[in-house]
Amino acid sequence: MAKILDNCSLALIAFGSNENSILGYPRETVQKAMKFLADMSVKPHNSSSLYTNPAFPKGSGPHFVNAAMAIHTNLSPAELLDELHQVEARALRTRSKRWGQRTLDLDLIGVGELVQPDNTTFARWRDLGLSEQQVETPTELILPHPRLQDRAFVLVPLCDVAPDWRHPISGKTVREMRDALPSNDLAEVVRLSD
Questions:
Q1: Measured distance CA(35)–CA(91) in Å, rounded
Q2: Which of 17, 30, 98, 141 is the most buried (most CB within 10 A)?
Q3: Rounded CA gap, 39 and 42, in Å?
Q4: Quick one: pLDDT at residue 51?
Q5: pTM of the entire structure?
Q6: pLDDT score at 59
């Protein structure tokens, strides 16, 4: 049985796909996943536009379709992550290679002002070098997402849905984090037409 929090929390979720799935092409896969998550929100949700950008790290696969949502949930972060994994499973997501091609990637970016499991663990993952990031995977949920501030493909769509959400460690808003990124990184994230 799901644990109910005292109040519902704002949860920020990033979507990505660069491989066809049972749900369709990457664009269709992301759109259908967004519908699944919209149905989970206990209050009105907010969805971003769809964007395309090169795979990360560069050269690791076809371009991604990315998006973001802000939903309201009564689930604990662990329960919400489990729900995200179930949606990924509907797209037959496999985890065979870190940062490989994906039918669907759903990342829990933040939940309200939570830092989880603690500031020290968060800082370790935030400060991990790129070569270590490519081989190490956390064994526990880290909130907010430790790479959030570095990724234009997350921050650009997230700015559509929660530009004023503040990072609970840095205190910077999504808009401030996005605007601090190099302009060439931002230019690679291109809004798709409807």
A1: 13
A2: 17
A3: 8
A4: 98
A5: 0.90
A6: 74
pLDDT under 50 in the chain at which residues? 1-5
The structure tokens listed for 137 are 């995977």
CATH class of the domain comprising 9-191? alpha beta
Domain boundaries, the chain: 9-191
Q: Look at the chain and count its residues.
A: 194
pLDDT at residue 2 in the model? 40
| Of residues 80, 78, 103, 81, the one with CA closest to residue 90 | 103
Do residues 152 and 168 make contact, with C-beta atoms less than 8 angstroms apart?
no
pLDDT in the model for residue 3: 42
Helices 77-90, 26-40: crossing angle, 10 deg rounding? 140
Question: DSSP 3-state assignment of 138?
Answer: coil
